[in-house]
Design brief:
Layout (H helix, E strand, L loop, with lengths): L2 H7 L5 E4 L6 H8 L7 E8 L2 E8 L2 E3 L1 H7 L5 E3 L2 H7 L18 E5 L7 E5 L5 E6 H8 L2 E3 L2 E3 L2
Parallel strand pairs: 3-6, 6-9
Antiparallel strand pairs: 1-8, 2-3, 2-5, 4-10, 7-8
């Protein structure tokens, strides 16, 4: 995976930044001084035997029952670390970019992200981030938009 090359090939306007190590999306939001609503958190889910990369704000969690309904799946569960490591072999575990197309996986995005003017996400490491407009993210990821995220209390 060469995210920077892919962004350039797609003609995406973006800003690449480097920050202190951040292991969670909320931590990255603090280091990048942005709201957790703008940080796209990728979560790999296995639905009826197929992997789907869910993209939602760092400030939210997945309502698995709602996601299952949105995907018309009988079963949906979080992927385990060995599965994530295998599918995203070129990325540091937990720093995967929320662009399933890079890895041959469909992306489904929570509709709450569509209300943001720009988004930011980890770029394959715990120290690199990419910021872009939501329109460019939509063009890049080509996600299916669904309602499955819930704000953390």
């Amino acid at each position: 995976m060469d995210l920077r090359w892919y962004l350039d090939q797609m003609g995406i306007r973006y800003h690449w930044s480097h920050h202190d190590t951040a292991y969670t999306a909320q931590d990255m939001a603090r280091k990048e001084d942005v709201s957790g609503k703008k940080v796209v958190k990728p979560v790999l889910v296995e639905a009826d035997g197929q992997f789907v990369l869910c993209a939602l704000p760092a400030s939210h969690f997945i309502d698995m029952e709602e996601l299952r309904r949105e995907l018309n799946a009988r079963e949906a569960r979080l992927a385990d670390e060995p599965q994530i490591a295998q599918l995203f072999a070129d990325c540091e575990l937990g720093a995967e970019p929320p662009v399933g197309r890079l890895f041959g996986i469909a992306t489904v995005m929570d509709d709450s992200l569509a209300r943001q003017d720009e988004v930011i996400f980890q770029a394959g490491t715990h120290q690199d981030a990419v910021r872009m407009s939501i329109q460019d993210y939509l063009r890049l990821a080509q996600p299916r938009i669904a309602h499955f995220g819930r704000p953390r209390a």
